[in-house]
Amino acid sequence: MPDDQSEAITYLSDPASHGGADVKHLQTHGAHVFLAGETAYKIKRAVAYDYMDFSTLSLREAMLRREFDLNRPTAPQIYRDVCPLTRSPEGGLELGGTGEPVEWVLRMTRFPQENELSAIAERGELDDALAQDLGQAVHDYHAQSPRREADGAQLMADIVTELETAFAGMSDELGADRADRFRILARERQAALAPLMQARGVRGHIRRCHGDLHLNNIVLLDKRPVLFDALEFDEVLGTCDVLYDLAFLIMDLRHRDLGRSACLALDAWLFAAAGEEDAGLAALPYFLGIRGAIRAMVEVQTGRATGEISGHAERARGFLDDALESFAAGPPTLLAVGGMSGTGKTTLARDLLPLIGPPPGAVHLRSDLERKQLAGADPLDRLPADAYGAEASGAVYCRLLSRAETLLQAGRSVVIDATWLAPGERKDLAALARRTGVAFSALWLEAGTAALQARVSARHGDASDADATVVARQARDAKTPEHWHHVDATGSAEETLRRARAALEL
């Protein structure tokens, strides 16, 4: 039987234990957190699930120490130490005393809860720049995570088995029909993707990852996203494909109706990987579905642990519905967005991403970014003129088409954002669509030369190097395509999006 923690909870909830500071008590299915003054105190909840056992004091101490060791290197500004809550000589409790430990406590520096990415998202403040920073931060985390030798397919099969076992006892909250459909579809996808997942394990894509990568576990510190609270209780669950790790974040963003942010975070992660992760995206819908199912399971467990069953059950059903939607992904499509510099191609492409193709949406390939990466430059570095010569530009368009082909073959829709001024480039694009057998659409954005020159002259902090002189040259030399959808881009971004959606019948 799990230990009685009531005395420790009462002590840590008491302002007198914290110099009179007000205390806020937060609960999850696996922990109690007490916020007081500038410190957060965390104890493991004395529970035993099939996949997580904190039922004894020694287990809780070990898991808190493991949590500290995992998170301290990547979030040193948060994690302080692990200390005992001990019995005092007078019979009461004291933190960090020399008596017999009654409970173990992880001490952390408290940060404003409004800085959690979940709170930022709820306020509608998760903008494009932050979404891209988020994708980059996750890539950086994965880059320094140790590789593990493991069978990627078997790791996922074990998770599906755990979910099936858990869902068998959750029919009241989830509904038997949902759970049955999940079981059938998950097994089908698992079998189909097993060779890919095994191959990714061989190629080094399996690492000791974060494992619990949703918005509640990311905080904005010094204007940068910081990942914390990595999964510590099971090395097997924490060892996974880096794309499966990212999928938790993408799923969470989609569930919050932040499809654009989900696409931009994914794009930033893919760009930082320089194409090395593109082929693996065939597994993304499956990974999204499994992550949604895990959130459904945790919601039910949290509802039962806290006694707030109704609200958590409703959220659990929503997550499982998301999972089933991810499993039902349709065929990919290819969309080109072209036009002279300053027409708003990148803005429109980003607006369209969540509207196109299987969840979470299309992958955005941008010529300006690929050009900078090929040149070994930062996206905001200005390149010399020879980086825009015929040979260099040919290499850029070759890379765009190569990445697009890999992504399309992986079942991902693609939006390619480039000028597409040369008829030969457009022919190659159409040939790609025919070769991959996907539906192809193309938008050509148009606006007056003077307006475009004014727009590019006003740009700051953008990957494009185009200036007014470039626009003038484009206007002189451009050969507009006959069979693309021509879209008036003289107005606002919202007006251009409305016209583009009408042309594409979205």
TrEMBL record:
Every Aminoglycoside phosphotransferase domain range: 108-260
Q: What is this protein called?
A: Aminoglycoside phosphotransferase domain-containing protein
Q: Which domain of life is it from?
A: Bacteria
Q: Where is this region: Disordered?
A: 1-20
What is the protein's species of origin? Salipiger abyssi
